[in-house]
Amino acid sequence: MTRAPARTPKQRKHDTLHRLEHDVDVWVATAAEDGSAPHLVPLSFVWDGAVLLIATRATTPTGRHLRAGGVARLALGPPDDVVVIEGTAVPVPPAELPEEDAEIFAGKTGFDPRELAAPCLYFRILPQRVQAWRAREEDEGVEVMRDGTWLVPD
User: CA-CA distance, 63 to 55, in Å (whole number)?
Assistant: First the structure.
């Protein structure tokens, strides 16, 4: 099987931003503050150019972990074209989320947490580290963001 050559850092960033702008679902991994009880779930998201917005019921393991520890790891895409994001999570009660943001979230994802009977929370995920790779050829230089700063200029 012939594989495409490794992408340049600039192309990796471009592809990562495209995925963030166009994908709808992301895998969200969390754990309790002491690292126990790891949990992994698919959730819908919206990217505003700087922050991912997700939502989940407040009582789920994901909701509890994000409120308590404020840390998440997210993964977009298939294993042969993956973006992994480590970020900090800030809970946002639905009443505190701007109406425009809630409408954008519901419109893009087809899911409106405001309509559920069980209390939900939105979480703003601020990326701190982003990695992107496709195959062995891209094992080097997978990091496209570090400490919240893109490593490649626009």
Answer: 8
**pLDDT digit string (tens) for 30-72?**
998 888 888 999 999 999 999 999 999 999 999 999 999 999 9
* C-alpha atoms less than 13 angstroms from C-alpha of 150 in its C-beta half-sphere: 13
CATH 2.30.110.10 fits 25-136, yes or no: yes
* Interatomic CA distance for residues 16 and 112, integer angstroms: 26
**Cβ distance 66 to 55 under 8 Å?**
no
Residues 75 and 86: beta-carbon distance below 8 Å: no
Structure tokens at 26: 């992301």
Q: Which of 134, 38, 34 is nearest to 84 (CA)?
A: 134
Asked if 28 and 54 touch (Cβ cutoff 8 Å), the reply is yes
Domain boundaries of the chain, sorted by first residue: 25-136
- Which pLDDT does position 130 carry in this prediction? 96
Tell me: pLDDT of 4 over 80. no
